[in-house]
Design goal:
Largest sheet: 4 strands, parallel
Order of helices and strands: EHHHEHEHEHHH
Helix content: 40-55%
Strand order of the largest sheet: 1-2-3-4
Number of strands: 4
Oligomer: single chain
Radius of gyration: 16 Å
Number of helices: 8
Distance between the termini: 51 Å
Low-confidence stretches: 1-40
Amino acid sequence: MTTLALNRCRGGKISTAADLLIKVPWKSIRRVQELYLPIYHYLCQKVEQRLSIFIAVSTRESFGVSVLEAAACGIPAITSNVGGLPEVNKHDETGIVILPERPNELAEKIIYLYKNNQWRLKLGNNARRRVVSDFNWDKSVSQMLKIYDKLCP
């Protein structure tokens, strides 16, 4: 059975680690990272491990953290080619990238991945490997802390 996740508007809720980090003072960043992010990450894994395809066909997007979270669980994504989504989801490597506001094309791609289980699994495995090598927690948090330390000495 294939399970889909649609990335919806956050509606003011903390839905990503980035949202959580934005809501705390800069000086608290190390404490937040140590205490809260592992809990959040664990909950995301429990939900996302049940998915087969993650869908984020936004018309506006800054980066696409939710796509990386799905990729970390080996879930390939179908995303639009706006904002940072093509940076986190590589077409025919880690998922499928389409133009926004094309529901028929989206439906075709969902059906394609549903019918081509081996290709879907390969995309998911590639996505997982890419997150581990390029977007891992230690590397990302270390880079963010260096920037914050420069901006807020």
